[in-house]
Structures are given as structure tokens and as C-alpha cells.
Write a structure and sequence with these properties.
Mean pLDDT: 86
Strand order of the largest sheet: 2-1-3-4-15-14-12-8
Number of strands: 15
CATH superfamily of the largest domain: Class I glutamine amidotransferase (GATase) domain
Helix content: 25-40%
Number of domains: 2
Shape: globular
Radius of gyration: 24 Å
Distance between the termini: 13 Å
CATH architecture of the largest domain: 3-Layer(aba) Sandwich
Largest sheet: 8 strands, mixed
Order of helices and strands: HEHEEHEHHEEEEHEEEEEHEEHH
């Protein structure tokens, strides 16, 4: 009888442990049954650095794949573009427009710094934003921070989460995120560049900013109008790092770096120099928030807790019945 009782105790502990560990995963990622594309079709700076993101969202019941050619995008519910370095053709821009106009879409456009002239936002990703009717633009410069970083000034730690309508939910428990060699985000309204620190266009919300000590840089000395913050800034610091723009049923996120990339632990919990990071939590909460807000997907978590409770209830009378037989 003792062996029999012990068996159920061990079974209960195992199932409870599964419930707890699995609950953390299924409870954390609400997005499920979604098809997610990572667009590496135009020489992405981060190609080959998405394993953690893919594993996390695949394990939650989604399909995640890399897009190597822009032909038809209609099957994707969300697309993430990480720092493309070559231009998109007019046909490819039209394909993005057709995809985005299908509604209930989430597009995450991530930039990079102008280091060495490798990434040129105005020739690669800003044309996509403009073609979709977005007011957001990636700055053609770079952000550095001498005091808030993971080992060096270009591994920038953004430590200013915003508390707007979306930010107040997404940034719960999020204190700081790493953007490795990033740029910033500004807006264009009627052809006029807008400083998002002082003016927010309609339906635009800054989700995260760099610190008050952050600096704007023009590393490739391009002196173009696209180096907006470097040549037009009125005050230093607090540059927008991640910005959202709502289009009724779809959303565009523009970020200074690919916070979903494994590169330098950006989609991680600690930097290369041990700095605590909330990048993974931020990205998961961002995905959860906008998928729920767009009402595009319905989460069906496996009911481990119910199974544990049911097994426990069933076990009790069985154990007592065995005890009674032993007494007889």
C-alpha cells in the first residue's frame, strides 16, 4: 500500500512540475497558429542569428520561416525585416503593399547603424515604410551611449520604457533592452521630418527610448537629410528606439535594431558582459499585445493545470479504497 500511495505522490509531483514549467511557456507566448516570416531576402546583416526566436515561437505552436525571395507574402501573419542592406524592387514593394492591405498584419522593420556605410536606411527599408503609407523612418545615423551599454558604447542599453497605451502593457517588468549598433526613429509628415521626442503623429506611439545620456552619431559622414537627428536635434538623449504606428487593423513597428536576433544576445536575458536584459520578455510581450489587439489569433494553451487537478482528485478515492481493503 505504501508503494501504491508513493506512486501517486510522485506522479502528482511530476505532473505539477510539468504544469508549472509548461505554464511558464504557454502563458508567456500567447501567439499561436500564426505564420511568421523573417525577411532575409536582401542581404540581412543578421542572417543566421534567429534560432532562439524561431525555437521559442515554434514551440508555442507557430510556423516560423525565413523568407529568401519576395514572390508571394500572403501566407504570413507577421513579417520581421532585420537590417536589409540592398534595395527592394518596385515589384517587391508592391508585394509588401498587397500583403499589408490584407489587414490583421504585423510588420516589424529593424534598422542598424551607419557604421562603414553598410546599412543605408534611405535606400533599403525606408522605401518600404513610405510605400505602405507609414510616417515612420529609420534615421541614417547611429546611437552611442558611453554610460548605458554592454561593455562598449555601441552596444547600447535602452533604459527608458514608455508608458503610453501599448507601452504601459508591453513594458510591464521590462527595464532595459540591448540594441547592438543601432540607429533611431523619426517621422515624416507631408514631406517634413518630425522629431518624435517633441511631436507624435496620429496613431504613433514611442514604445522605448534610449537613455538621456545617449548620443546621435554620423559615422559615415553622409551629411544627408536622412541623418535627421544629427543635423536637426535641439537637445540630446531620449532618442526613440522602438516606435509603433497603428493602421486600424494592422501595425508597423520600427526599431533601431533587430531585437529578435541572437546577435550579441539581443534576443536574450543577459549581454556578453553580463548585463541583465529584458529583450526576450519585451519581444514576447510586444507580439502578444499586438496579436491580441488585432484579434487575429486565438491562443489555446494545453490545460496542464486541469490535468494535474483531475489526476489528484481521481487518486484520492483510489488511495482510500486501498487503505480500507488493507484494514479488512
Amino acid at each position: 500500500m505504501k508503494k501504491f500511495t508513493g506512486f501517486f505522490v510522485i506522479l502528482f509531483i511530476i505532473l505539477f512540475s510539468l504544469s508549472y514549467s509548461q505554464g511558464l511557456v504557454t502563458e508567456e507566448i500567447h501567439v499561436t497558429n500564426a505564420t511568421i516570416g523573417i525577411d532575409i531576402s536582401h542581404n540581412s546583416i543578421h542572417e543566421g542569428y534567429f534560432d532562439a526566436f524561431i525555437d521559442n515561437f515554434t514551440s508555442a505552436g507557430n510556423t516560423v520561416e525565413e523568407i529568401i525571395e519576395i514572390s508571394s507574402l500572403k501566407k504570413y501573419d507577421v513579417i520581421l525585416i532585420p537590417g536589409s542592406t540592398t534595395s527592394y524592387s518596385s515589384e517587391e514593394l508592391d508585394e509588401y503593399k498587397k500583403w499589408f492591405e490584407r489587414k490583421n498584419k504585423l510588420l516589424f522593420v529593424a534598422g542598424d547603424s551607419d557604421y562603414g556605410g553598410l546599412f543605408q536606411a534611405n535606400k533599403t527599408l525606408n522605401p518600404i515604410l513610405e510605400h505602405l503609407g507609414s510616417s515612420l523612418r529609420l534615421d541614417a545615423g547611429a546611437i552611442g551611449d558611453l554610460y548605458n551599454n554592454d561593455g562598449t558604447d555601441y552596444r547600447v542599453i535602452a533604459n527608458t520604457p514608455k508608458s503610453g497605451h501599448a507601452g504601459s502593457i508591453i513594458n510591464q517588468g521590462v527595464d532595459q533592452i540591448l540594441l547592438h549598433g543601432p540607429t533611431s526613429v523619426y517621422a515624416v509628415i507631408d514631406g517634413i521630418p518630425i522629431d518624435l521626442r517633441t511631436t507624435l503623429p496620429e496613431n504613433v506611439e514611442v514604445l522605448f527610448s534610449y537613455s538621456n545620456g545617449s548620443q546621435i552619431l554620423d559615422q559615415d559622414i553622409s551629411e544627408s537629410l536622412n541623418d535627421f537627428y544629427y543635423y536637426n536635434t535641439l537637445f540630446l538623449g531620449d532618442y526613440p528606439a522602438i516606435v509603433a504606428e497603428n493602421f486600424t487593423t494592422s501595425v508597423i513597428i520600427v526599431a533601431g535594431e533587430a531585437t529578435f536576433s541572437d546577435y550579441k544576445n539581443m534576443f536574450g536575458v543577459s549581454g556578453e558582459y553580463g548585463t541583465d536584459l529584458d529583450n526576450r520578455l519585451f519581444m514576447i510581450r510586444l507580439m502578444n499585445y499586438y496579436f491580441e489587439d488585432l484579434n487575429s489569433f486565438k491562443s489555446v494553451d494545453f490545460p496542464f493545470e486541469i490535468i494535474v487537478f483531475t489526476v489528484a482528485i481521481i487518486s484520492i478515492p483510489v488511495i482510500f479504497k486501498k487503505k480500507i481493503k488493507v484494514k479488512k
